[in-house]
Queue: 2 jobs
Job 1
Amino acid sequence: MRADPRWPAALLLLAAFRLAAAEEFGPAQLMQAFAAIPEAQTRFIEVRRSDMLRAPLELKGKLLYQRPDRLERHVLSPYQEVTRIDGDRVTIENPARGEPRTYSLAALPAALALVEGLRATLAGDLAALERHYRVSLAGSREAWTLSLVPRTPAVAGAVSSIQLTGSAARLTRVEIEETTGDRITTVFGDR
Amino acid sequence: MSVNGRARMAVAIWLAALLASGYWIARHTSVTTDLGAFLPPAATRAQEILVDQLRSGVASRLLLIGIDGADEAALAKASSELAQRLDASGAFGTVVNGEPQRLAPERDRLFGLRYALSSGVRPERFTAEGLRAALREELELLGSPLGMLSRRTLPADPTGELRRLAAPLAGAAGPMSRQGVWMSLDGKRALLAAQTLAPGFDLDAQERAADLVRSLFAGIAPPGAVLQLAGPGLAGAAARAAIERDARRATLTSLLGVVLLLVAAYRSVLPVLLSGLPALSGMAIGVAVVSLWFGQVHGITLGFAAILIGEAVDYPTYLYAHAARGEALAQTARRIGPTLRLAVLTTSFGAIAMLLSTFRGLAQLGLLTMVGVAVAGLVTWLVLPVLTPARALEGKLMRLPFAGVAFVPGSPHRWLAALLVAAALPVIAAHSGRLWDDDLANLSPVPEPAKALDAELRGQLGAPDLRHLLAVVAPEREAVLQKSEALQPLLERAVADGWIGGYELAARYLPSRRTQEARRAALPDRATLAARLAQAQRGLPFRDGLFAPFLADVEQARNAPPVAADAWHGTALASRLDALLAPGAKGWVAFVPISSLRDAKMLGAALQVHADEGVLHIDLKREADALVAGYRAESLRLVLFGLLCIAALLYAGLRDLALTLRVLAPALGAALLCVATLLAAGVRLSVLHLVALLLVVGVGLNYALFFNRRPAAEGESALTRLSLVVAGLASLCAALTLAAGSTPVLRAIGATFALGTVYGFLLSALLARRPPPGAV
């Protein structure tokens, strides 16, 4: 049976109208929304699955962000640890280990890329994201997924991909896949 | 022998000496550029170490590199490519630009040797409890944002030894990174640091290294990008180039001035050309003698010597200007002979002061001046009269074209001289507290812009000026390593408490045998370790069998040969280790550079315990200042000794105490006036001024000697005045061209000498014996 050619045409036309009516939503628009937020604070649950571990490692804590480049990650259980990231400097404070340790992100390109995946997103800095990753966005303003694939070999050697999921200017979930096969899933939200 | 025969003999000897010197210079003389020869000699062990460090230490090999003038991405790319090419060139030990992968070979080697090198390897670390604590820490690290760093090494290194070892290597501090490489805060300059394999004192090699960087950069430079280079070796090379440039320019300009002056006086070219012979002969024979005596001639000695011997250019002037109309030159030479001889001898023996200096550069300069001036005098006295044709001087001036009242010796205004010198004394007294400049940096002939760029790049790179270091001394390498290891707990505490920013230690890369054995003994055998590990893992989520590589590596480390001195061969750490640990003439020395010393008192107190054990704290700046002060004191003593020699010679030649004083007074007065003028102008005196003052005294003596000559014939006073004015103007011309240069060193000498010429001439004229009536 021959299909009626009018149906697909009508559908196409409908889709065109729908597209024209929809507001544009791409990485730039998402970033704009984040850029408007000067600081944020949220709780998180982070689960690492690794072939080195018999059972997943689950951490609970809170995350603080302050424009433009400060990030604080407080692990509250099962142990206590604070990581402060300020520009290029990372300081890890673990009471069980005594003296805080400071690192330069510049010397650790993979760690820098990983930090920027989160920090640049929260900062709404698309240029910084694109320096490390190829960025693509799927979904709608209310339910989006931002996919990051490393650009440089130094980063690609450590991270396979990062997926950030959220709604409007709120990050709800980050999924990191490392080249070793480790998967780290972080869920954000004040519950 | 007839008079004629003697003259011919003199010419023959002169020619033979010239030929021999030429041969020696061509065949055997090597010109060095080792700046060390112009560093004062060390009196103490600490100063010896300082001089060594300045010449070839780690800091002396540093080359600071900046790339400007392109956007961030282009700068980062250029930095990365330049670093790769510098590595490939083989002329540099370490090249760092902030790219982490640059240290990969060193990390791999550290990893392989971790159980021999890490201070964390202790028996308690490998008990069940110790291992359990380590595994907990690893688990927490795995959960941190930096977890991926230890993720790969975790199965083989669960006690985290690599982390402990690599931390000082990467350096927590450093410049900011942008686009993966070091950049200045504003992102407008990419920064690199390279360590040359050549020591800092080898200026030729340093220059070659800089040229290599420039040519490699030219191959990869993005459009508009500019390379900035700085560093101690390069600064030395720049200083040398500036001195050479200035000396050449000054020589040419003053040569031109002097030639014009002489042509105007002699109205003929031949005597002008012949006037150059004594000085050139003096230079050639002098250089040959210096190289015979010292084995080599320093480039800077040559540069300064040309200036010192410049005084010798005056000798033919005295001869030619004194020739009376129709007089045979041999007759003139006989007539002024005694005065000329005394002038030559006083200058020549004034230089003895420098010859006796322990400072090799000055000693060379002294010998060259002594020989050069003596030869120039002899050539003027014995050779020029033979070589100068009778008619060459026929057209010369016979008296000054502008004879004025100021040039009448023994003027009634002699009180003016006394007044001038009397005025100088309070000025000198007022500055007596800040007479001397003992900063070694100010003795350095490095041009200002090079110094400024060095400071700027150093600041941006966060490379601290290396000022403090500990030196650990012992007869054997093993003992030196053990002693420096004993310092480590103290240094760790100093870092933790913030007295010091950090330190570097050879034993980090090459532990003593004793320590290596202790570490090996701390490692349990395979079965024991496996049992303890199983116990430690209980309750932790690590998969069974995960740590098999750890068990294997520990077992291997237990049976591995000790880390040898050449363990770092082929990595950047090899040159670093060489610089930190070196065999010396008196046994082995390990250097412990201390960065950012904040509390010298605390460190000093802590070191007290080790003071008797061959551990020296060296403040390079303080040692340098002490070195310069000690050396300046020596030079002052020698200059005074030189003056005594001159006075004794004068008295022996003149045999008249009053006349001796009359000749000495203007020369010494001129030196005092020079000092007062320099001080009043805000200049502090350095050893270079002392050298110049010796020259001032020499020239002042010449003027005074000739001004005080008893004229033997009618009209001779007019000839004397002519010769003095011509000679004085020639000296002034040479001094002024030097003073106008850009090198601080040459400027100091030039300005002092110019002042001295004017003062010496003025005072000599004012204080001279009154000529008998009718002689004018």
Job 2
Amino acid sequence: MKRSVLDQLVLEQRLNEPTAAMALDLSGARPDAAAWRSFLVRLLNGAGIAALGAGAIFFVAANWQDYGVLGRFALLQVALLAAAGLALWRPPPHALGQGAVTLALLFTGALLALFGQTYQTGADVYELFFIWAALAFPFALASASAAVWATWWVVLNVGMALYCGLEDTSLARFLFASRLGIERPLLLFLACLVNLGGAILFDHLGRARWLVRVLATFGFVFGTVACMVALFGGSARGAGMSQQDSLVILLFAAACGGIAFETLRRKRDVYPMALVFGAWIAISTAFLIKQMQFKDFGNVLVLAAWLIATSGVAGFVLMKWVREWRAT
Amino acid sequence: MMTADELLEVLHKAPEAHASERPWYIGLLLGVAGWFAGLLLVLFVGAVIHPDSGGGALFTGLVLLAAAWGLFRADREGAFVSQLALALSIAAQFALLFGTYEILFKGSHQGGIAPIAFIALVIQLALVPVMPNGLHRTMCTIFACIAWAIFVRYGLWDQPFWSDRKGQPPLSLGMALAGWIVAWAPAAGALYLLVHKEPAWMAAGRQVMARPVATGLILGLAFATIISHPFEAFRLFGPAEGPRVGWLALWPILSALASLGALAAAFALGGRGLMGLCVLAALLHVSHFYYAIGASLLIKSVLMLVMGAACLALARHLRAKP
């Protein structure tokens, strides 16, 4: 039971301290000794594995210069094999298996980075992240763990962010983007679609809600940045918005409309609507900043008023939905 | 006093939908927007009124604060007017900070970061009970934590890297640990008390005050610890010559432990969203520890390995305990 319900109940019923304590216990809101023990075991296990992993990484980094090329590869490959072996010995969903798969995912990236550093392949950094994501995909798939999937998506998103931020001189960007006439806002929007697609897929598969929310957040961040870059003439280099820029804003608006429609139809989680509101408050504020000349300070007041009004409306409407959807 | 059966009956009848708890993401949206709007408002007010003197700024701040208080009182449940009130209050706080500093410290030898932090601390602590709004109370609590940590450090035992402190020895281990504990123990202690005394303040009807403050303390302990060493924390982006190092390098790992403490408090108070944020904060602190200057990577590595082994051993012991 939520604390807000209990707060209200304690006030309405004028419960005294012992009864309020009993209400917390009976409703399961306050963890009992068994819950605390289970929480502490999970916390200590998680912190222990993370600290050991970080310690190992720090140790390798501390002595990196002292190893030869062979030693470096051997070290990382042994670590990767050990992690994979542990995961096979105690496969997920066992905590050890999940931790081992996460480490295997991270070691794959370290191995790739070492390969690139040693043999000077000339690959761009984003290529490293894309290949890393591709090679680590089986680990994420095998883990069936939201935490491992989240790590995998972070790797993919870093790759996409780097790719979107690169200049036209990159060969891959030339082949796959510039030749097709795709400019930065549209690239950013495609990254947005990849994340939103992932969120929809995981939602459909019934995965952890926090993972769906994380992916949706990534998607909206990409989409919002795409619209802002389009607004400020990212592809037209100061010559105003191009057709592609306008298209990106329209497409993102359509995507937001679709998400809003589905969210309002299902009435399950308000979070996507908060993302929609947040994104469009940011985009509309950027639009106002672009349109204003800032010749006097009155414009600053207009911006402040706009932020207050839009966020106020957003807060009011979102809370209305929160209350209504809890009731259904 | 109710019996357990009577209480259970009441609990079963309690309608979940009547809860007015605001999800963390809506609070975040409103808080960020309100904060930016407040910054814009203070720019506008400063440009229009030109409060050249400290007294003028103080007066402007008090008027804005009174307006914010009135709006919060008028619109306790809604978001429309509250959002305007939040922005007005942020603008007022900047004006009060500027005005008070101008009056008390301008031109004196005591100027610097510490007095600013102290004034900010007093303002935030005063506003927690005064402003009748949960989000405002949470934000004030976080800012109070930050202000206290900065005041302790730069007021009692350190100076910013740009000041003249040549010849000062590197920070000792004891001083680094004591400095961190003095800065963050009050917040941790207050949070412990709030968790421990939850039934008492619920029965006393202090939920509207205690719960937002607890949220602010959890977020403060999880994230704001990085602000207590601002020039070291953001050194990657700062000047090459700069902050004093030494055992200060331990602070990020202490901050990671504080995040885990905040995680436990969030668990005790049933804040699942807050728990996720605390985990994120702990990971950020460990990443920061890697870059912290003052201890070799080897020492850091040994520290992490020992801590990791200790955590796993403790977990095993707890699991085996009947």
